[in-house]
User: Fold Prenylcysteine oxidase 1 from Astyanax mexicanus.
Amino acid sequence: MFLRYLSVRALLLLLGICLIGPRGLASAAETKEPKKIAVIGGGIGGSAAAYFLRQEFGASVKIDVFEAGTVGGRTATENVKGQDYEIGAAVIHPLNLHLKHFVETLGLSPRAEVKNKMAIFNGKELTFEESDWFIVNFIRMLWRYGFNSYRKFGWVEGILGKFMSVYQYQKFGYAFSSVEQLLRSVDAERFLNQTLEEAMRADGFSQAFINDIVTPNTRTNFGLNAALNAFVGVVSLADGTSGLWSVEGGNKRMSAGLLQLCKAEIIQGRVTGITLKTSKSASQYEVNYSVDSGPSRSLYDIVIIATPLHKGLSDISFSGFSPPIPSHFSGDFQQIVNTLVLGRLNMSYLGTDQRAADFLVSDILTTDNKALPFNSLATVAPVKIPQGYAHPPASANKVWKMFSAQPLSEEQLGEMFESQEGVWVKRWLAYPSYTPPNHRTPPFILHDHLYYVNAIEWAASCMEMSALSARNAALLAYNRWHGHAHKIDQEDLETRLRTEL
Ligand SMILES: Cc1cc2nc3c(=O)[nH]c(=O)nc-3n(C[C@H](O)[C@H](O)[C@H](O)COP(=O)(O)OP(=O)(O)OC[C@H]3O[C@@H](n4cnc5c(N)ncnc54)[C@H](O)[C@@H]3O)c2cc1C
Ligand SMILES: *[C@@H]1O[C@H](CO)[C@@H](O)[C@H](O)[C@H]1NC(C)=O
Ligand SMILES: *[C@@H]1O[C@H](CO)[C@@H](O)[C@H](O)[C@H]1NC(C)=O
Ligand SMILES: *[C@@H]1O[C@H](CO)[C@@H](O)[C@H](O)[C@H]1NC(C)=O
Assistant:
């Protein structure tokens, strides 16, 4: 499917048709271009939105990006004894095409690959430990779960494979007004009102496999068991594949790079309010914000909100109109505490009698055990490492990273580690507390020319989804500004793209 489109594109290139581009037929002279666009939030979503807006609207529009905290948002690093470690979003999937494109365009590099080894802990002992030998893993999994684990890869790949079409739709300038519409275009909408557990059970996976293997993945990635929506569940399982990567020097470099490349002005300040101002000739938004020197405000033709509007996250008030969030789309973001410990692990805590010097497991996932104080425990490498770097064994004094719902107490850490040289803690309101079935997702369009990138997080929260939603917001803003209704919410795009050509 993908290949077919690629070859069609190659053909178009040969014919020179691509020069017209997806939006080439619109005569820009007919409509007035917007003069000023505001993007609220300088995380990967906001910075990608600024970049894609520049692509759509061209060089002359002024793009202001408001950032109350630090550019990068939930991608952030912490310095531990002179080395930086990811303390927010860490891993990127090989099929995350927008992020891949950013890294290439910005001249950044992926960090050298580190070999990881996974184990599963049930609170008493390690119930599974990956072997270095593929064949050993194969036989162990086969013995315990039949073909479940091998089918899992096919199942996840089948869903992701269909999902990949969305990149083609975006390339051709198509946008969607809601998360549901976007997912419907790639046959994934049904995963929003099903739990991962239901979807997998319906497709013949065993409950044992879901409890023992699937849940540890969703706990690590989204702090919940397999009762989350099936779409975010698939995103979580895709994380269990090989080839995961991150950006050398830190994932946050993507945001900083994109903002610089697209010549957005970064306004270091907190947006407090957005007011719709309507005159005879036009509607604009007045954005109120506070900077070091005090409160200020400015008018914009288009506003893109690239931060969650749910409780405790952004505190923006609206006047002149009332967007439906969060009133009509209730829900909470869950707290995830990211704790880094430089220290030596207590091997007996894991209920194993292996010697620490031989213990090379890097990622310890957990089953759904309420008594466990953490969701996952992993040894992590800094954001910059030399080629051929390998994780040291557990006997070394090294950096471990834990995700937990609550901060870990000194007592808990004392039991887990034989020695500790330092502890670094970051509390996040990390991602939605996914509660299926069918939690309706907020709309991408909050009002005319006011768009909401973070609606996508209610389907799944990850860096690539933010980037994908940012591209959608830019296309939506462009198509609606120019009245291109035929580029929005089109059904059956796959056949249409085939026959249009
Ligand atoms: C612990 C953790 C681990 C994760 N692991 C992964 C992972 O491995 N892989 C992955 O892909 N994803 C991961 N994620 C998810 C990922 O971090 C997010 O989906 C993504 O970074 C969201 O980006 P964003 O730009 O949409 O939002 P944010 O990064 O939250 O950006 C919003 C920005 O807006 C700013 N802001 C808020 N309010 C205002 C205001 N009123 N005025 C001005 N600015 C404001 C904030 O300061 C922030 O910088 C993880 C998240 C967490 C918390
Ligand atoms: C789930 O979504 C599908 C597809 O949109 C729909 O047909 C079905 O009725 C929904 N089920 C529930 C329980 O909402
Ligand atoms: C924006 O600022 C102006 C001037 O300070 C104020 O009158 C107005 O109420 C503010 N609007 C919002 C939505 O906060
Ligand atoms: C190591 O873990 C075991 C098992 O949880 C515990 O009994 C022991 O006290 C721990 N060691 C230290 C130094 O806390």
Summary: Residues 111-159+190-250+332-432 form a domain with the Polyamine Oxidase; Chain A, domain 2 fold (CATH 3.90.660). The radius of gyration is 24 Å. Residues 463-481 form the longest helix (19 residues).
